[in-house]
């Protein structure tokens, strides 16, 4: 069931969800909110509530808050015609990243946890299918800049803060999920990193890795803090892990393989099957 | 106005071809079918089933769509993807391309036999391989001179493992694969009218070779509006086995059902985590190295293809009358996990 709430009291309503938390957390939480966002939802803004999602929606786009995890995502409505797709703010990714970084940190993302930036790049193209393989170049639509999160020098996997701006300086999209990371997890990650700095201790750890999964022993890896993803509505989990990417000798998808400080394989709560197969099929 | 215009045109077209009652094909297509394999004898994976479950549960967390079929591991068969009218054992009408479904999502292995280690500095330098198109894919720079590796339009594959003891492939480039044919699209691809899906997501490895979109995917378009894939953009790089890619796509629907479907898939890469860095900077986002989410749409002309690719929203996706009605123009949109504008992936 969808409930609509008029704009009266909107900021208070959305703001009630927001806040920062530092209790028992070395990794600070930042929860983005509509009144801190430059995303313009357009005219006729109103609040919709659908289950655990609160959506501020207008005739240009929507700003959504997942009230379970605090993650936010703002996206444009589909343009009325393809000619109205956004144009890029700039052809210079560094210029875009400077603007996006200032914006996101200005909104409240903890600057001390931002260890870098990178862009993703959206492009489009097309051509006749009658000519077989096409040689028509694609054109840049926009850059999206991501803030990279690290705590005590340990990269955090699962958090994100990104923003994209168009040629008018208007936001195309933004998303933030920057949960608190418990002290204990950060401490464990730092200790694991120190342990793996010692050749003898690393050798012992890697013997454990090999025993658990032989094909992971030669894959390059690093210590990370990993947490459950922005859409996970179960119990929040954050763990200190040694993380590797293992390519199969048969080819195909590469596996993300993680180990705890005791070199035991780690599966996060949102990496488990939750469904049930349909009744057995005949064909 | 465009969807309405398309609807009338297609309605008349379909009515001329189909004797089924109006009510049978005027109903919205809402089903979401998911198929995923982790139990492979050719390289065990662990996150594909969770990936499709996370996708569908997020999609169904608000109204608008309904659960279709769910097949995992040994219940995913090669024939799930082949057309019932073109292959003697084809069974997509009961599985990956069911009437009444709007979305079908496969997650599992693919093959990377499109990639080679043959060094090139331009596409013309790549040796010809009979029956394929070729490209020189940027690999690295020697000082400021780009060096690449040759890639070819070999058929792209979905890999399954019905018995858990032997992997099988079905290729969607040249096999008897046709998706999306139904009364709204018409029978222009020779696959009758017993399909349904409007968005097919193929979440596998080496799902498509950069710039070889037409030879590798045109075959599968038979009414489906958009096919969404993952495109490694450097030889040796590939899709990572992550559990949050499907949910990142569903997040775009949940956040804004009026957002465009094609850009939702490409933008979803921004919310995917895990993977490894790209040689040209950035990386990760569910990719082991450099790559992109790409959405392809095929229509009879440019305007319709662009509409399907960049404008059709999640609500319009359920409307059978917005199906593709023929080959003629391909439109694409992609988002790389690095700066592929400064570092274009093809060396011409």
Summed up:
The complex is a heterodimer of chains A (283) and B (348). Chain A has 283 residues and is of the alpha+beta class.
Write up what this structure looks like:
The complex is a heterodimer of chains A (283) and B (348). With 283 residues, chain A is α+β, with helices and mostly antiparallel strands. Chain A has helices at residues 10-15, 93-107, 183-196, 199-212; strands at 2-5, 20-21, 25-27, 29-30, 46-50, 53-57, 61-66, 72-76, 114-128, 139-151, 154-157, 160-165, 171-177, 181-182, 221-227, 238-246, 254-259. In chain A, strand 16 and strand 17 (254-259) form a beta hairpin. The longest helix of chain A is centred in the middle third of the chain and has 15 residues, at 93-107. Chain A is globular and about 60 Å long. Chain B has seven helices and 16 strands. In chain B, the strands form four sheets. A seven-stranded mixed beta sheet of chain B has the order 2-1-3-9-10-14-15. In chain B, strand 5 and strand 6 (145-152) form a beta hairpin. Mean pLDDT of chain B is 92; it is low at 1-25. The interface between A and B is large, with 86 and 111 residues. Strand 9 (114-128) of chain A pairs antiparallel with strand 15 (329-336) of chain B.
Strand order of the largest sheet of chain B: 2-1-3-9-10-14-15
Percent of sequence in beta strands of chain A = 35-45%
- SS class of chain B: alpha/beta
Q: What's the gyration radius of chain A in Å?
A: 22 Å
Oligomer designation: heterodimer
- State mean pLDDT of chain B (0 to 100 scale): 92
**What is the CA-based Rg of chain B, rounded?**
19 Å
Number of helices of chain A: 4
Give the N-to-C terminal Cα separation of chain B: 40 Å
Poorly predicted tracts of residues of chain B = 1-25
Alpha-beta classification of chain A: alpha+beta
Give the mean pLDDT of chain A.
91
| Main pleated-sheet profile of chain A | 13 strands, mixed
Low-pLDDT residue intervals, each spanning 5 or more residues of chain A:
6-23
Which pair has the most extensive contact? A-B, 86 and 111 residues
């Amino acid at each position: 069931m969808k409930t609509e709430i008029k704009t009266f009291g909107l900021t208070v309503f959305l703001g009630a969800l927001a806040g920062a938390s530092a209790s028992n957390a070395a990794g600070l939480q930042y929860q983005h909110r509509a009144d801190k966002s430059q995303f313009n939802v357009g005219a006729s803004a109103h609040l919709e509530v659908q289950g655990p999602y609160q959506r501020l929606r207008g005739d240009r786009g929507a700003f959504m808050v997942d009230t379970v995890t605090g993650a936010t995502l703002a996206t444009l409505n589909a343009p009325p015609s393809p000619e109205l797709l956004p144009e890029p703010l700039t052809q210079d990714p560094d210029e875009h990243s400077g603007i996006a970084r200032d914006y996101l940190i200005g909104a409240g993302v903890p600057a001390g946890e931002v260890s870098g930036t990178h862009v993703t790049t959206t492009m489009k193209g097309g051509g006749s299918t009658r000519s077989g393989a096409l040689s028509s170049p694609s054109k840049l639509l926009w850059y999206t800049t991501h803030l990279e999160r690290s705590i005590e020098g340990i990269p955090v996997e699962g958090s994100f803060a990104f923003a994209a701006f168009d040629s008018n300086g208007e936001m195309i999209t933004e998303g933030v999920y920057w949960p608190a990371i418990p002290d204990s997890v950060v401490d464990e990650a730092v200790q694991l990193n120190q342990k793996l700095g010692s050749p003898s201790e690393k050798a012992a750890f890697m013997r454990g890795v090999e025993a658990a999964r032989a094909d992971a022993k030669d894959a390059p890896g690093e210590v990370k803090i990993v947490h459950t993803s922005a859409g996970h509505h179960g119990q929040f989990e954050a763990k200190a892990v040694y993380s590797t990417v293992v390519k199969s000798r048969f080819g195909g998808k590469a596996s993300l393989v993680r180990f705890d400080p005791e070199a035991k394989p780690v599966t996060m709560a949102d990496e488990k099957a939750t469904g049930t197969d349909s009744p057995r099929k005949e064909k | 106005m465009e969807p309405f215009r398309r609807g009338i045109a297609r309605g008349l077209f379909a009515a001329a071809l189909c004797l089924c009652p109006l009510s049978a094909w005027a109903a919205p297509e809402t089903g979401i079918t998911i198929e995923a394999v982790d139990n492979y004898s050719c390289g065990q994976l662990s996150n594909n089933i969770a990936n499709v479950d996370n996708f569908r549960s997020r999609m169904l967390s608000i109204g608008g769509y309904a659960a279709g079929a769910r097949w995992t591991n040994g219940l995913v068969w090669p024939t799930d993807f082949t057309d019932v009218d073109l292959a003697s054992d084809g069974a997509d009408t009961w599985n990956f391309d069911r009437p009444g479904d709007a979305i079908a999502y496969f997650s599992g292995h693919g093959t990377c036999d499109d990639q080679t280690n043959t060094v090139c500095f331009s596409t013309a330098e790549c040796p010809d391989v009979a029956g394929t198109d070729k490209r020189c894919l940027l690999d690295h720079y020697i000082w400021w001179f780009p060096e690449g590796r040759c890639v070819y339009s070999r058929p792209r594959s979905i890999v399954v493992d019905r018995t858990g003891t032997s992997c099988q492939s079905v290729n969607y480039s040249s096999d008897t694969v046709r998706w999306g044919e139904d009364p709204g699209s018409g029978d222009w691809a020779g696959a009758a009218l017993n399909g349904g899906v409007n968005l097919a997501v193929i979440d596998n490895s080496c799902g498509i070779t950069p710039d070889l979109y037409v030879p590798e995917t045109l075959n599968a378009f038979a009414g489906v509006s958009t096919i969404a894939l993952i495109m490694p953009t450097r030889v040796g790089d590939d899709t990572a086995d992550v559990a949050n890619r499907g949910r990142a796509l569903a997040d775009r629907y949940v956040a804004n059902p009026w957002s465009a479907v094609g850009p939702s898939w490409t933008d979803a890469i921004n919310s995917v985590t895990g993977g490894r860095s790209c040689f040209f900077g950035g990386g990760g986002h569910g990719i082991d190295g450099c790559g992109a989410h790409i959405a392809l749409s095929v229509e009879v002309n440019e305007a319709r293809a662009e509409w399907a690719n960049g404008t059709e929203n999640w609500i319009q996706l359920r409307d059978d009358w917005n199906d593709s009605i023929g080959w003629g123009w391909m439109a694409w949109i992609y988002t790389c996990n690095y700066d592929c504008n400064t570092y274009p992936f093809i060396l011409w």
